[in-house]
Amino acid sequence: MYWSKNGGPGGGLVHATTPKGDFRLFKHIDGWRKNYLGNLYKPWYFTPYYAVHGSGSVPAHPASHGCVRVPIWESDHLDSMLKLGLRIHIWDEPQREPMDATETPATDTPVQRVA
Fold it and tell me: Residue 65 and residue 16: Cα distance in Å, rounded?
């Protein structure tokens, strides 16, 4: 997956940094979502403003406005593998300690699936 450390191609008009750390997927939209930055395909939100989502353009260099962009076909594949409450780790260097994939989601984590 590709991510942006220093924002996107907007000539400095929009600056965002992909948040790093441990998150839970808490909202999913099945289909396209349009916002002021463009179109997001099947976004899985890990913060209220950042998501893993499909895009028709995924360059081999950091170029998003902070989201984690994947190709459309990969987003379709991920859609069958991801679930609300799943823990994900976003980093800019190799992970030092493995995450426990069997850990259950926190009960106080709000989750929302939007059709």
Answer: 5
- pTM, two decimals, is 0.68
Helix, strand, or coil (residue 73) = helix
Q: Which contacts of 105-112 are long-range, i.e. CB under 8 A and separated by 24 or more positions?
A: 105/24, 106/24, 109/24, 109/26, 109/85, 110/26, 111/25, 111/26, 111/27, 111/84, 111/85, 112/26, 112/27, 112/28, 112/84
Tokens of 90: 């976003």
Give tens-digit pLDDT for 70-96. 999 999 999 889 999 999 998 876 555
Residue with tokens 């950042």: 50
Q: Going from the N-terminus, what domains does the chain have, and what CATH number goes with each?
A: 21-114 (2.40.440.10)
